[in-house]
Design brief:
The protein is 10% helix and 35% strand. By secondary structure, the protein is mainly beta. Strands 2-3-4-1-5-8-7-6 form an eight-stranded mixed beta sheet, with helices on one face.
Length: 172
Amino acid sequence: KVPALVGEPPTDAIKAGIQAVGYAVAGIEAVTSRLCELGATQLGRGVGPRGSHTIVLRDPRGVTLEVVADQEITEASRLCHVRITSVDLDLPIPWYEKLGWEVLERSPLADPGLYGHPDGTAEVARLRLPDEPTETHLVQWTDPAAHGRHPNQAHHASIYRIGLGGGRTPAS
């Protein structure tokens, strides 16, 4: 494939960087079964930061997907969040707020086993732009402590960057 991917996708939820993309679906079991038929591997299941039943999968290229149950969804699926591990939540939150994002909730991660660390502890901040349903989930692991740096090479395996769009300008 051109261009060739570089690096390895993240396999450790406590390493800094973009960890996963989440999709809201009405039929979580059917969608998960179909993704597994297509080569995805189930990594975990539990309650995600939105308080909904969540199944974590890795696709054949190493991208981590989170399928989130949402009975109110009318589409087949909808992007609902991006999960990013941060080494210190107090650093990125003010930056997001300057861009117009609102902190919806900041609390302990209720189910760290969902991300492969059942005995770990972490704090999660859920952020969202006022007119946008998609959230950003910033997670800071405290035990074990988050570590490392986000990959910055173009064409890095998995998710190395995301784009934000919008029509409104945040207040200065």
